[in-house]
């Protein structure tokens, strides 16, 4: 189906930008949302910007959307990471879902992370599961104060992946014919990982944590291709999945015995 209209958050850089480029190269239209260089310059950490998102997007796409990609994220050791990665992504999906109603083949996807598998901080995870933003901010601040701010990122991604799985099979999503999935990238060459990949020592440390036996670190286009398929008209039956696009990290660390 040609000429689909996609909404992509985080469209100014890395995976979001690669997704925009790929979709546009295929003749689709992309409305990008980001804090800079976007069709809609919006801050997804800000509840007011999130609340206005549906009206803002509807003004640019009066006939609605075919697909929503919640890609924007940050990896900082504090509350901003919970605000953007969880509350920003959930608001993107929830606020824009009604705009998918007119599409003959709607779809949505969120970008989680391989870090979904890392141990979360339980108080923060509980606040995110409850969609309690003040509670989550307080828990993330407490982690940062204890020097454990690095736990905010994996916890935000775990909660996002859980949200996708839980919602995917509800009347609002599956019942409305909308596949809803998450992609969990491993190590992708973007500004987010540039420092970690900069020296042999930091690279080795990263690949100890996130092994990449299949071709090492990936280019953002690799994830874009998966996002493009998951949100294409071809995908009518894959939903509720957290798909690891991680060069083999998940299979290496979890092994074969994950079923049951
Ligand atoms: N790079 C990796 O190895 C990797 C691995 C796993 C998951 N991810 C996830 O992939 C997604 C994209 O990351 P990337 O690697 O392309 O990083 P990136 O830094 O290149 O791009 C992130 C984009 O999100 C935007 N953004 C950040 N805060 C925002 C806000 N408050 N409102 C709106 N936009 C905002 C940024 O401006 C930027 O354009 C993120 O969710 C990230 O957590 C990346």
TrEMBL record:
Keywords: Oxidoreductase. Signal peptide: none annotated. SUPFAM superfamilies: NAD(P)-binding Rossmann-fold domains. Pfam families: adh_short_C2 (PF13561). The keyword RNA-binding does not apply. Transmembrane segments: none annotated. Belongs to the short-chain dehydrogenases/reductases (SDR) family. PANTHER family: DEHYDROGENASES, SHORT CHAIN, ESTRADIOL 17-BETA-DEHYDROGENASE 8-RELATED. This is SDR family oxidoreductase. It comes from Streptomyces millisiae.
């Amino acid at each position: 189906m040609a000429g689909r209209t996609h909404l992509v958050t985080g469209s100014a850089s890395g995976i979001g930008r690669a997704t925009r480029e790929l979709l546009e190269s295929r003749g689709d239209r992309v409305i990008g949302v980001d804090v800079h260089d976007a069709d809609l310059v919006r801050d997804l950490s800000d509840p007011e910007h999130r609340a206005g998102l549906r009206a803002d997007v509807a003004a640019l796409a009066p006939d609605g959307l075919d697909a929503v990609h919640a890609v924007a994220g940050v990896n900082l050791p504090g509350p901003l990471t919970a605000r953007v990665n969880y509350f920003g992504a959930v608001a993107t999906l929830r606020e824009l879902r009604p705009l998918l109603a007119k599409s003959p083949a709607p779809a949505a996807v969120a970008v989680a992370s391989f870090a979904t598998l890392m141990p979360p901080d339980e108080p923060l995870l509980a606040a995110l599961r409850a969609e309690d933003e003040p509670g989550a901010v307080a828990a993330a601040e407490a982690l940062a104060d204890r020097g454990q701010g690095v736990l905010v990122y994996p916890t935000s991604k775990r909660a996002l992946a859980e949200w996708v799985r839980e919602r995917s099979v509800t009347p609002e999503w599956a019942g409305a014919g909308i596949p809803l999935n998450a992609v969990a990238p491993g190590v992708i060459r973007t500004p987010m990982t540039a420092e970690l990949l900069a020296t042999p020592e930091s690279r080795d440390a990263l690949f100890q944590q996130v092994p990449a036996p299949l071709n090492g670190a990936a280019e953002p286009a690799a994830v874009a291709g998966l996002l493009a398929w998951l949100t294409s008209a071809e995908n009518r039956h894959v939903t509720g999945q957290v798909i690891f696009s991680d060069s083999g990290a998940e299979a290496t660390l979890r092994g074969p015995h994950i079923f049951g």
